[in-house]
Amino acid sequence: MILQKENMKRFCSADKITCYIITVLIIITIIGAVIIILNATPPPDPPAWRYECQQNRCVKMELNQSNIDTAISLPVCRLFCGENVPVWPKPTETIRLDPSTVRIKKSGINFRRPSTRSVDSLWSAIENRFTNQIEAKVAHTTGLKDEGKNLIIKFSVNESSNYNLESYTDERYKLSLSQTSNEAIAEIKAETIYGARHGLETLSQLIVYDDIRRELQVVAEGEISDSPVYKHRGLLLDTSRNYFSVESLKRLIDAMAIVKLNVFHWHITDSHSFPLVLKSHPDLTKYGAYTPKKVYTPESIRDLVQYARVRGVRVLPEFDAPAHVGEGWQKKDMTACFNKQPWQDYCVEPPCGQLDPTVDGLYDVLEDIYREMYDYFDSPDIFHMGGDEVSTGCWNSSERIQKWMLAKGWKLEEKDFIELWGYFQDNALERFDKVAGRKLPIIMWTSHLTEKPFVDKYLDKSRYIIQIWTTGADPKVQDLLELGYKLIVSNYDALYLDCGFGGWVNDGNNWCSPFIGWQKVYDNRPDKIAGQYPSQILGSEAALWAEQVDEYTLDSRFWPRASALAERLWSNPDTTWREAESRMLMHRERLVENGIGAEALQPEWCLQNENDCPIIKSGA
Ligand SMILES: *[C@@H]1O[C@H](CO)[C@@H](O)[C@H](O)[C@H]1NC(C)=O
Ligand SMILES: *[C@@H]1O[C@H](CO)[C@@H](O)[C@H](O)[C@H]1NC(C)=O
Ligand SMILES: *[C@@H]1O[C@H](CO)[C@@H](O)[C@H](O)[C@H]1NC(C)=O
After folding, report:
1. What are the structural domain ranges in the chain?
2. pTM of the full structure
């Protein structure tokens, strides 16, 4: 320091004029910099456009000085214009929604939660998620004037309700909006915390950013009473054909939470890879995972299950057997036809592989797998045992299996192989029941085994739920309904989101082309498929089989198409996709705002010019 002062003195005394010039230059530079910084963010110009509600649609109009005071921004116009509130999925009952908003302060959001200490961390996580969603509304805007009323969010739930998320969890809620002179008040009443969570999701969609005034606004007064039509509202993802990081799965669950889907059906293993880490059988992952890093550890599964719970999503594990097994089992000598060629003779896609039901030790291994899965997935109250696409040709290609069957006095006919399959299923179920210690509902895919005359011989309808993947019009669906089975609908012609890309075992298109648009997903009605047995349909799932997708294109395969399913299952509107279209476009923006790489459905012009894009049918 001293040295520096002396240097300065010496410098100034040596050449006073230079010294003063430099000092003045420095001062001018500082003042200049301050002026530039102060001027760097002048208030942005207001947008060029405002919207007016005319004949139930928001019409784009010029915004200028003469109308700026009364001008309405697009999201505010959409809140009140036309029949539908822009909430997705549409609530089952909107009792009242007064056409006015009140501005609220982002920094003034307060939660009043019930005093339930044991689940405080669950409440906090739910509240934080809401706060982040509000944060996301202003993240990409021209800035926020954080002024207005405080927003008070009051929750009430049934004190004696269950805090576990189960297949029969009550998801109803009632949301009431009101205001006092300095507060906007949102009251959310629900039976369970999960219903309350749904109410909060709806509330977040009734809060909009007004880009004319650069402020957050919430609907001032109103009441919504809401509950889902179907209990089972799911998405299936296959993490065996390709691997998905836990981070990308969390993003999937985030998006599910936005649209109140409640089941993440995790098809975790298949013949292609075995990413599930099991302490009892490390060889399955060692030889089965694509790389040592492309695995799901017990910790990461537990973490994901908890993450999903905060978002009202149950994780439904599937262990698909006896087919769809292969990689990972190399050291066990418990499979048949593994990677056998030409694969077309033994399975539906390479690599082939099926468990060999005749190996005694197999059922001990299955019991170990079930035990660990049951534990990692936090004692689920439903389990999926797969059971699809068993190939007789595969089993019949094994001399060991043939010998075992003949020794039992069986023949080698189709029905004998069905018998073998039934034998496998009984033994596997017995081991699962032992692990769970109770008789849980079991889901199985439609297959030969679920057809007449086998199905009621091998699958007890009080235990088994059948997940349909054939077309909705397949008469076998009616057979199952008549026999009294409960169904989950995943008809591939409307709900397989992997359809419609290029082929991967040949050129041309993949097996279930063409691509399924959101409109088809929206108009696929489980109640129509059910015919006279509507109460036997538990719900529906859209499936993404992962031959041609991994985490890098995950978002755009599911979204926003899965949102169409979500609304079909939540409120099952009597209307078609046409009535939902303009809301869907707004909803797609909401997904993007929340970090979901949802596909664009139309030019953004169509969003800004409501209903000017669809072809108007002549005479309509
Ligand atoms: C302001 O915009 C309105 C349409 O919204 C238009 O009729 C009016 O001529 C415009 N006024 C000016 C001064 O540009
Ligand atoms: C609260 O939950 C308990 C247990 O589920 C139930 O018996 C009771 O009827 C519920 N109370 C109300 C007011 O719904
Ligand atoms: C199984 O293979 C044997 C020959 O090894 C054949 O006779 C029999 O028809 C086959 N069974 C079926 C169902 O294809």
Report:
1. 83-226, 232-573
2. 0.93
